[in-house]
Specification:
Blueprint (H helix, E strand, L loop, with lengths): L6 H8 L3 H9 L4 H19 L6 H16 L5 H11 L37 E11 L3 E10 L5 E7 L4 H15 L6 E4 L8 H9 L3 E4 L9 H13 L9 H17 L11 H8 L1
Helix pairs in contact: 3-4, 3-5, 4-5
């Protein structure tokens, strides 16, 4: 609903005199202000074209090419930086990384799985890992999952805003609740800080499970989990853009349901993972 407020009242609220307002209203924009509008217009077009990957340095190089023809001059880097801040542009890549002190593992395990990715029955061998997704302009989400090597099904998964212990512990709790103490799988992970923590070790011991870990720098030791991340991203994530966490979460939920129940595989005799699992039961 529009309010019929007088100019005098609005000026009083803003803390300016009426004459200043009318002077501003009638003023003619300076040459530099008009040029800034042109620069911003071109930056918005370029920002959308490159999907937000340009920081102010690369933006300046691109703007130099455009405005050298129009104004016969190069643009100042600080000016580009200031105008990008005005419109809220930030590069989504190559941000300066924080340097963290490497933590000392609280618990480590041998590579018991040793790339023997074949399982004879459900809940005999599990693999687990965390992967990263981006949404919006520069926000990140993290997916933790546990996969059964018997049929390739995703036993449990959790999508969160942070890659921390809580994300991994919740994934583990969901998985152990499903087997309810009836089975005691071997679970294989990398040597990430969550998996080497006392909290994860306590959960393994409580479920009477055996822990196996990849060797340092050998991601192939957890090949089936890496393979699933690649499949998920190629068949779902890379095909769309996700503006919000909710959109990304919905897409992942839909895909994992499809993967478990409707994605038929030759190596499973033309069945989906859950159908293959049901036959074993």
């Amino acid at each position: 609903m529009e309010e019929n407020l007088s100019i005098s009242l609005l000026c009083e609220i803003a803390g300016i005199v009426r004459s200043a307002y009318y002077k501003w209203l009638k003023r003619i924009p300076s040459k530099r202000e008009l040029q800034n509008k042109e620069i911003i217009k071109e930056m918005v077009t370029l920002h959308e074209k490159v999907e937000g990957i340009y920081g102010y340095r690369r933006m300046k190089l691109a703007m130099d090419r455009i405005f050298k023809k129009k104004f016969k001059q190069k643009l100042n880097r600080k000016r580009i930086y200031r105008l990008m801040n005005i419109v809220g542009f930030q590069s989504v890549i190559r941000k300066k990384k924080k340097h963290y002190k490497r933590s000392i593992p609280q618990h480590v395990a041998e590579n018991i799985l040793n790339r023997n990715f074949k399982a004879e029955k459900p809940n005999e061998k599990w693999v687990t890992d965390v992967t990263e997704f981006k949404y919006g302009t520069s926000k990140k989400a993290y997916l933790s999952a546990i996969r059964d090597l018997y049929d390739g099904s995703i036993v449990s998964y959790v999508l969160g805003h942070r890659n921390n212990n809580r994300l991994v512990f919740k994934t583990m709790d969901l998985a152990t609740a499903i087997i309810n103490g009836e089975d005691h799988p071997l679970i294989h992970s990398d040597r990430g800080f969550q998996y080497t923590s006392h909290g994860f070790k306590r959960r393994i011991d409580k479920a009477e499970m055996t822990h196996s870990m990849s060797r340092v720098g050998k991601c192939i030791d957890n090949g089936p989990m890496e393979s699933f991340w690649g499949t998920l991203k190629c068949e779902k994530y890379y095909l769309h853009k996700y503006e919000t966490f909710e959109e990304l979460s919905r897409a992942i939920n839909e895909y994992i349901y499809f993967y478990n129940y409707e994605r038929y595989q030759e190596k499973l005799n033309g069945l989906s993972p859950i159908e293959f699992r049901a036959k074993a039961a």
